[in-house]
């Protein structure tokens, strides 16, 4: 027996994808450029776990996010998880 989720995943729902892109818009141009490049390269292959990690990162202030994206600081505390490290690696690769 397989479980069928009652909600659409990020990839299956174009409205969720559009909302995530809108939410990712930042006040700092540097963040916007990196996140836009990230979406252009990886949006089609993001898992729901990737989307959840990205949503957590988007809760950070612009300056905190920029420090992580530019590797001026590393993940710590509750954010330092394997899925978050994977996502940050992808963001830094663009």
Termini, distance in Å? 40 Å
Given as residue ranges, the uncertain stretches (5+ residues, pLDDT < 50) are none
Q: How large is the count of helical segments?
A: 5
| Overall shape | globular
Average predicted local confidence, pLDDT: 86
Radius of gyration: 14 Å
| Computed structural class | mainly alpha
The percentage helix is: 55-70%
Structural summary, described in words:
It is found in: Cytoplasm. Keywords: Chaperone, Cytoplasm. It holds the Pfam family Sdh5. One of its GO terms (cellular component) is cytoplasm. The chain is mostly helical. It has a domain of 48 residues. Helices cover 56% and strands 0% of the residues. The chain has 5 helices and no strands. It is globular and about 35 Å long. The termini are far apart.
Summary of the model, kept short:
This protein is mainly alpha-helical and 94 residues long.
């Amino acid at each position: 027996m397989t479980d069928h989720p009652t909600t659409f995943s990020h990839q299956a729902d174009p409205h969720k994808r559009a909302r995530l892109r809108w939410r990712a818009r930042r006040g700092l141009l540097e963040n916007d450029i990196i996140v836009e490049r990230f979406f252009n390269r990886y949006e089609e292959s993001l898992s729901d776990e990737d989307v959840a990690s990205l949503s957590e990162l988007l809760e950070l202030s612009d300056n905190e996010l920029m420090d992580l994206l530019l590797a001026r600081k590393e993940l710590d505390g509750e954010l330092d998880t394997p899925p978050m490290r994977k996502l940050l690696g992808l963001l830094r690769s663009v």
